[in-house]
Amino acid sequence: MLAKRVLDLLISIPLLIVLSPLWLMIVLWIKADSKGPAVFRQERVGRNGALFTIYKFRTMVPNADAVMKEKIEQLKKEGKFDPDNFIFQDKDDPRITKSGRFLRKSSLDELPQLLNIINGTMSIVGPRPEVPEIVDQYTHEQRHRLDMPPGVTGLAQVNGRSELTLTETLKYDVEYVQNWRLGLDLKILWKTLFIVIKGKGAY
Hints:
- The chain is mainly alpha-helical.
- It is 46% helix and 10% strand.
- It has one domain.
- Strand 1 (39-45) and strand 2 (51-57) form a beta hairpin.
- The radius of gyration is 16 Å and the shape is globular.
- The model has no long low-confidence stretch (mean pLDDT 87).
């Protein structure tokens, strides 16, 4: 875990410095494209169930988060919420802004998570950080994904990304935790590079 933390800092700090001019350009684009803050903040569940604030460039309309939470709660009340087939991201989602579509396709919306990596709430590689409403539905086995710090990329991201159902994503996350080693992180990082270049599974 110490080696994992050192790897995180060796990668994230230089990237934060080198990409700072790009950050400014993205912020100006988002502000010109739609009303609302350029950086999206949301409560997520991290390692051992600890809550933290995740940072991303905003790719949706300002009230998109509230709309999604209302949808989940409504499905629960109606007894129609199915974690096995629930998919958060839809390539035709009308809540996504024009700038947001490009940022998602290029994965540039994830850049602010470098701050999460530096402050220790996230790692570069790990299970994707989930919202509390979904974590509350986890089975005992699925909760093992919380044994590791959440990551910007991970086993699920190099095996389908947004095309996966929630259950499929959780399966990959648990597999990652059970088989974790530093070499696996390096392998995932290498695969992520090509996934990002192709823009495969991102919308």
